[in-house]
Amino acid sequence: MAVLAWSTDQLTKWWVESTMTLGEQIDVLPPVLYWRYHLNPGAAFSLGTDHTWFFTLVMSGVLLFVLWHSRRLGGSWLWALGLGGLAGGVAGNLTDRLFRPPGFGHGEVVDFIAVPNFAIFNVADSFIVCSMIGICAMLVFGLDIDGTREGKARDAEEQADGGEPEEDPR
């Protein structure tokens, strides 16, 4: 999933840069969807445009965190999809920060997906947001990264210790 997210993001950004001029807008599904070529030195909604280096550090930290915790993946394909999509999305925008002008660690992110009354974003941003929604849902519903459910894992531990499992209050 990470490779799919990263490669799709980079391929679409290459397509935008090679076929559009900065600021150009193409109608896709008017009035709800446009391609609008934009370079973003900041974060979401172009916040922090003078602190590009900070976002480079944060993205590097998030990517390392996700990769480190991916080692704990058990049999949960949902967590694999969520962490893979997050890693790929973060890696896509980090690639821009590291290797696009104006320089290493200060690169501008290519954004091009525009919807009315909202920020312009890219494929990496979509993977990041969708993955975080999925990860939050898994946490809310008690699906652990190793594929077990919170209540079932606790009951199994208690039985292994010789105790009786607690009744589920649900």
From TrEMBL:
The reaction(s) this protein catalyses: Release of signal peptides from bacterial membrane prolipoproteins. Hydrolyzes -Xaa-Yaa-Zaa-|-(S,diacylglyceryl)Cys-, in which Xaa is hydrophobic (preferably Leu), and Yaa (Ala or Ser) and Zaa (Gly or Ala) have small, neutral side chains
Keywords assigned: Aspartyl protease, Cell membrane, Hydrolase, Membrane, Protease, Transmembrane, Transmembrane helix
Transmembrane segments: 52-70, 77-99, 119-143
EC number: 3.4.23.36
Active site: 111, 125
Signal sequence range: none
Subcellular location: Cell membrane
Pathway: Protein modification; lipoprotein biosynthesis (signal peptide cleavage)
Membrane topology term: Multi-pass membrane protein
Role noted for this protein: This protein specifically catalyzes the removal of signal peptides from prolipoproteins.
Family: Belongs to the peptidase A8 family.
Name listed for the protein in its UniProt record: Lipoprotein signal peptidase
